[in-house]
Amino acid sequence: MTSRPVPQPADLDVVRDSYDRVADNYVDMVTTTGIGDIRTHPWLRAAMDVFADAVGGLGPVLDIGCGPGTVTAYLAERGLDVAGVDLSPRMIEHARRLHPQCTFSVGSSTDLDLAEASWGGLLGWWSLFNLPRNVLPRVLSSFARALMPEGQLIIATHVGDGDVLRTEAYGGVPVSWTTYRWQPDQLAALVEQAGLRPTAELRLPADGQSGPTVVLVAQRER
After folding, report:
1. Which three-class secondary structure state does DSSP give residue 209?
2. CA-to-CA distance for 141 and 109, rounded, in angstroms?
3. Cα–chain-centroid distance for residue 121?
4. Backbone phi and psi for residue 73, each to the nearest 5 degrees, phi listed first
5. pLDDT class of 211 with cuts at 50, 70, 90
6. What's the predicted TM-score (pTM) here?
7. Whole-angstrom Cα distance, residue 68 to residue 125?
């Protein structure tokens, strides 16, 4: 696998500012309602448990787009050597406050210095849907390169056709970002093109809190 520079999204700064604005409301939603916490969703929790078992003995794990660190902390509780990174400094402030036992840093999925074959597991858990369609394939290629042999990537994202422009979120906070929706087969094809082998797929219907979802797991071969 060869490394190619990942193009920076034109709206990167705008998206960062938007997530900074909604961070407080988002954290309040997670802590008071459980929405966004995999422990309240048995299928998502089960998928994460299988992922944790698969990568636990391989090497360190990075939760890319970790938000306030909810999943990062869950994996740490399972004994994984896991860290989190997020575009939003405000989200990272919350993550460090809520989960001081974990390591968090500010960074974009498009600009991570991931050494080749250095990670046992990577997560793109509801954190890749803001990446433009010409950027996501490059990001996935960088993830594939960074995984150790047999290392795994787990992605969760919105299912659908077309793009949705968001102008408010989480209690009416003004935001500006685009949700790029993918069909599961399209996403699986991108993962394969990046150099990974899809190993599992979980499709979930809309549940009143979010639209249809796909969880995709893929592995780097030896």
Report:
1. coil
2. 12
3. 12
4. -65, -35
5. confident
6. 0.95
7. 12
